[in-house]
Automatic annotation (TrEMBL):
Annotated source species: Mycolicibacterium anyangense
Record's signal peptide: 1-25
Coiled coil: none
Keyword Cell membrane annotated: no
Entry membrane topology: Multi-pass membrane protein
Alphabetical UniProt keywords: Glycoprotein, Ion channel, Ion transport, Membrane, Receptor, Signal, Transmembrane, Transmembrane helix, Transport
Protein name: ABC transporter substrate-binding protein
Superkingdom classification of source: Bacteria
Length: 371
């Protein structure tokens, strides 16, 4: 009888230990509760399909709440500002989904430890960042541009004038290189002028005054050809490199799109770069592919993910990450939830769970490691 009692007590004790394991694994102060989390859809952080949310932020949060023994009620917000407003007004206990930690925001909110190290980056149409070698059509297009036609018109005018002077002087010489009659005499002088302009005259004036005119015209021709060549070369160089965008300084004079009221708009405004503030990043993507914009500036992980997935082959990343910034989970000031979330995040980093979640969504190249 005593052995049966001991056996029953042992089973009860074992069940009690097993039931208490989750509490032991959770950070200190953790308790079962339902937390309202404000999010907004932004690939690859939060995506909602048929009411089911997926993404880096969702996986991260679900692992945190699993360790803390919490359940979650999601609140859909309108963009980052909607997430911040929901937390500020108390409609949500916390907010997440690529929320940047900034000096202004930490004066109003508490943030968790960084959930991802990121920054801003530039997205362009595919091929816009490549150094292109001008082809025959590019050369012909430039050759017959208004700028080049203006140069050719100037060459015609400055050749006609000395041609008439040369004909008037040279026709009186007995061994003249031109006919005494206006036609074809002036045409012969004009041909000589063009030949001099090209440094390939096939004859020379006989009259001393015409020879002096020839020397002066040869000097003018050298200067004209030098300027024309320099202009043509410069324009070809501009045609080759004008489309290149690899840093924020290349955005001046370009049509730039970003999402309104985000850290990227503040960055562009501080630099004095004009931009269009779109409602969503998808609006920027659509405008970029249609050619309405030369570039899109936004959060690097978001642009990198789109370039590898939804926009693969149509867009590409231009240049490195700039204006490094961190993402975090946002809370109201003094929220007791923040410390528990921080402890869960630290344990996830230590046991490798964080790295596994990050690799699932970003691989080893997109964004930067979160710690």
């Amino acid at each position: 009888m005593a052995s049966r009692v001991r056996a029953v007590l042992s089973v009860i004790l074992l069940l009690g230990v097993i039931a208490g394991l989750p509490a032991l694994a959770a950070p200190a102060g953790a308790e079962s509760r339902t937390v309202t989390l404000a999010t907004h859809d932004l690939d690859p952080f939060v995506t909602t399909h048929d009411g089911v949310k997926t993404g880096f932020t969702i996986d991260l949060w679900e692992e945190i709440t699993k360790r803390l023994g919490w359940s979650t009620t999601f609140l859909d917000a309108n963009g980052v500002n909607g997430v911040l407003d929901a937390v500020k007004t108390g409609a949500a206990d916390a907010g997440a989904s690529a929320v940047s930690i900034t000096a202004d925001r930490v004066q109003t909110f508490d943030f968790s430890q960084p959930t991802l190290n990121a920054g801003l980056q530039i997205l362009t149409k595919a091929g816009a960042t490549q150094k292109s070698t001008p082809g025959l059509m590019d050369f012909l297009k430039l050759l017959f541009s208004w700028s080049m036609l203006g140069w050719l018109g100037a060459a015609f005018i400055i050749t006609v004038i000395p041609a008439h002077i040369t004909w008037l002087v040279e026709r009186r010489h007995t061994d003249s290189m031109v006919s005494k009659s206006y036609f074809p005499g002036v045409l012969q002088a004009f041909g000589w002028g063009l030949g001099t302009l090209a440094a390939q005259p096939d004859d020379a004036p006989r009259h001393w005054l015409a020879r002096c005119m020839g020397l002066l015209w040869a000097f003018v021709s050298i200067i004209f050809v030098a300027y024309y060549t320099a202009t043509l070369t410069a324009n070809l160089t501009v045609e080759r490199f004008d489309a290149q965008i690899s840093s924020p300084t290349d955005l001046f004079g370009k049509s730039v799109c970003t999402v309104a009221n985000t850290t990227s708009t503040h960055f562009l405004s501080d630099l004095g770069i004009s931009f269009t503030g779109a409602r969503t990043i998808e609006d920027c993507y659509a405008g970029l592919k249609k050619g309405d914009f030369d570039a899109t500036v936004f959060d690097a992980p978001v642009l990198q993910y789109y370039a590898r997935h939804g926009g693969s082959g149509a867009v590409e990343i231009a240049g490195p990450i700039f204006k490094n910034e961190d993402y975090g989970i946002v809370f109201r000031p003094g929220s007791p939830l923040r410390q528990q979330v921080d402890e869960a995040l630290l344990s996830m980093r230590e046991d490798g769970t964080y790295d596994m979640i990050k690799a699932k969504w970003f691989g080893s190249e997109e964004g930067k490691a979160g710690g």
